[in-house]
Amino acid sequence: MVFSGFIITYNRSNLILDSISKVLSQSVSPDFLWIIDNSSDSLTLEAVDSLKSKKVKYHHMGSNAGPAGAAAKGLELCAADKADWIYWGDDDDPPTDPLIFEELFSIINFLPNNVKVGQVGLVGQLFDTQKGKIKRIENEVLNREFVLVDNIAGNQIKIINSNVVASNLLPNPKLFFGFEELDFDLKMKNRGFLSFISGELMFKQRVKYNTLNKTSNFNKHYQNNENWRDFYSNRNLLYILWINQMYLGFFNRLTVLLVKPIFNLRYGLKSFFSQVKFALRVFVGFLKLLNA
């Protein structure tokens, strides 16, 4: 088995060496590791070169392609290097325990050979297609050896089966940022590739971060604050729902987007018009993305 990986980074040369170290210190360590650099300077390249490691490879995107474009390139490069399994990582979310990769591979080895595994990961979510929302997995479900999920976020130790890439499935670079992993995971699901997490590992994460009784916060991107993160997240979610023919979910999310300004009237006309402007910007962005 050839195990490879990539780490997406953007102007975080101060973090990249620690992230690389934590990935390569895993008990099951990647045979090689690509650094996919969206940075606007050469500091990350200088940091990577200082390692003088044959395991670590470097690719500069030329411009900021966002997590979506960088992940697509990382998967392509790892597949071209004949990897069987590919770690998808972020520069600021390295594995926190040296046994995580080993434990995730134990899920793959435990599953029957006839199960078409697309990916495994540390923390997963379900997706409510009718409401167009990420859905929290109940604690009681996590008592299983492995749990079938719809989505594993990029910062939750995704390990991808290279057969997915061989099937011409890649993240959509047009999404740039926001739910690009959800789009990719739903495309996998539509092709019959399944996503699994370790119930035990996810339960331990909730204990560690004291979130056992926490209500879902996965939908924070729906708050429609007027900033670039919320713009991309709302725009992309509308796009993902539409192209996957999840029309009820699409109209639910669109309704929330359009009704939010009315509720903001209680904060004054300035807040109302700000939300109207944001909603129109998101919808126009969705239409442009659809026709791109």
TrEMBL record:
MF (Gene Ontology): glycosyltransferase activity
EC number: 2.4.-.-
Residue ranges of every copy of the Glycosyltransferase 2-like domain listed in the record: 6-122
Keywords: Glycosyltransferase, Transferase
Any Pfam family: Glycos_transf_2
Highest taxon in the source lineage: Bacteria
Name of the protein in its database record: Glycosyltransferase
Organism: Belliella marina
Lineage: Bacteria, Pseudomonadati, Bacteroidota, Cytophagia, Cytophagales
